[in-house]
Amino acid sequence: MSAVRKMPIGVQSFEDLRSKGFLYIDKTEFISKLIDGSKVHFLSRPRRFGKSLFLSTLKAYFLGQKELFKGLALETYEEAEKDKREIWQEYPVLYLDFNIGIYDTQEGLLNRLHSFLQEYETMYGSTGLDMPDRFQNVIKSAHKKTGKQVVILIDEYDKPLLQTMWKDENLNEIYRTVLKGFFGVIKSADQYIRFAFLTGVTKFSKVSIFSDLNNLRDLSLLSDYSGICGISQEELEKGFVPEIQNLAEKNNLSYEKALAKLKQRYDGYKFARKGSAMYNPFSLLNVFASGEFSSYWFATGTPTFLVDYLKKAYYNIPDLDGNVKINEAGLETYRADAVNPLPILFQAGYVTIKDYNDFAGLYRLGFPNDEVRYGFLDNLLPAYTSVRSDKTGLSIWEFYEQIEAADVDGFMEKLKGIISGIPYDSLTEKDLALREQNYQTAVYLVFALMNQFVHTEVHCAAGRADCTVEFPDKVYIFEFKLTSNGTAEDALNQIREKGYADRFSGSGKKVTAVGASFDEKKRTIKDWKISSP
Predict the structure, then answer these.
(1) What is the mean pLDDT of residues 123-149?
(2) How many CB atoms lie within 10 A of CB 212?
(3) How far apart are CA 353 and CA 326, in angstroms?
(4) In 412-491, beta strands by DSSP E
(5) In whole numbers, what is the pLDDT of the chain averaged over residues?
(6) Which run of H or of E encompasses 349?
(7) Helices (H), 323-407
(8) What is the pLDDT of residues 14-49, one digit of tens each?
(9) pTM, whole model, 2 decimals?
(10) C-alpha dist (Å) from residue 400 to 53, 154, 283, 451
């Protein structure tokens, strides 16, 4: 078994990564595309996707730390430019990291900005009266003292906004106003700036944060920059050969099957129309370091607020698995209400681009991979059923055990039990469609989560849902009538009339049909019938 190289888990300093022997996937080609082009840039990517490391790489370049780039693409690029301009120049770099700070009061943001400005005011001998004025004076003073234009790097600019968005709208509004004025300095001080780069999870363009910074180039959805963060299939297979070999041996898999499992669990993020699919780097590095397939990225942040967001929007949960269509304007919108949850789901990394219809101008979105799919659905289950959040894994496993043992009655009794506990919040007796949607979501979640252990298919439509569970030797076809006027016999008839079992003809598998109806008054499954289709 080969020695596993040092995985840079949590290492966000390019200098540390390069000087201390950590594995590095070369992303410096993207810097060569940026440094001699436009001046002010923005990049949105989900958390733990490598934004901070990329910003640190930019910092090292603009500080002229040539030795850190030995053997990398940027070294080759700079060498080719030496006859056109002075290479490996050192610039004054202003680096503001919003990951540092506690943003639960108005002073939280002001203290972070004060700390940042004070550091560089001391360095360059600058003063000022208020935040925008002080920021502008720091830029001018740095330029005057060094004779060089200034580089501004701002990491996770939206951290204060995200931390207050769901807790304190008044404070969030104050933060937006402060940051709008602060970032606006980048445009007004344009003549003193060599380069600027801002990163974040979200783009608050629709709530005026960047309205004064309208010279910004947004790289987030551009195909040429789709691989700027994350790890591509080519990078994985070229750069992690010994790690994949070790992972395969530890899990009794062939090299090819280990690759396939990595792809299914961690690949699939697309950030542009024509961009390559990317692996989540945090999950990949962790799986190679531990030698175990598990949930790593998803476990670092529970999307509780997103679950609440989806419920408030009465969103049709089954659509998230590849049935969402939206145009580019909708994809970039970010609003602090529950009208449209899709932009924040996309920007936060819970859904991603599956494909793009050029003629219609529409993106199709869905879960990127199994880690996100099952992690997200697992978090949704307690919101739509009576299953406790600490019992979701056990509950789904028990469903699987019952159906695998051909205990259909036990399976249906358990399903009846969790559906009868569906919370309704303020739904009235008139909200029949919403109650049906809650029934449908509960059924969908159970069968979709069972797909971790056995092949399942779930199709949902108004007032009904059909689900298939396929084992090597048997198949179960379920039809649920979710309205009060549907009976278990009606459900069985639909299975027969629609020919749901036809595709299993000649397979040698035993096919069992299960029809079920709902009791609106008791808010649960009323009865079910079992037969051959």
Answers:
(1) 94
(2) 17
(3) 10
(4) 455-461, 464-470, 474-481
(5) 90
(6) none
(7) 328-332, 342-347, 370-384, 392-404
(8) 999 999 999 999 999 999 999 988 899 999 999 999
(9) 0.92
(10) 42, 48, 27, 9
